[in-house]
Amino acid sequence: MLEIRPVCEHCGKNLLANSTEAMICSFECTFCKDCTDTVLHNVCPNCGGGLQMRPVRPQEMLIKHPPVTLKIHNPVKPEQFKLLFTKYKDILPEKR
Ligand SMILES: [Zn+2]
Ligand SMILES: [Zn+2]
């Protein structure tokens, strides 16, 4: 089941369960749309994968399957990210 995480890993912005600004990679690393567009440029800094809008779980399903509460704050480390970014930035996510 998809983990609905409460904040952007990079900037710490709150991302409600129904946010349309929450972006995730295949491992559910979670970032806001701003960071995805301006910092990450569609390269997840943890795994190198692409990021897509997180699907919104219907409200009545959230009662039984609520968002996780643990806030992961893991800002991008520029030196480390540069390696992944250089490797993947020009390759479409489905070809990485
Ligand atoms: Zn952010
Ligand atoms: Zn990732």
Give an overview of the whole structure:
- The longest helix is centred in the last third of the chain and has 11 residues, at 78-88.
- The protein has a three-stranded antiparallel β-sheet.
- Helices cover 26% and strands 8% of the residues.
- The chain is of the alpha+beta class.
- A hairpin with a 5-residue loop joins strand 1 and strand 2.
- It has one domain (22-95).
- The chain has helices spanning 33-40, 59-64, 78-88; strands spanning 22-24, 30-32, 52-53.
- The protein starts with 21 loop residues before the first strand and ends in an 8-residue tail after the last helix.
- It is globular, with a radius of gyration of 13 Å.
- The site of one zinc ion (ZN) has 7 residues, from loops.
Strands, helices and their partners?
Elements: E1 22-24, E2 30-32, H1 33-40, E3 52-53, H2 59-64, H3 78-88
Antiparallel strand pairs: 1-2, 1-3
Overview in brief:
26% of the residues lie in helices and 8% in strands. The chain is built from three helices and three strands. The two termini are 24 Å apart.
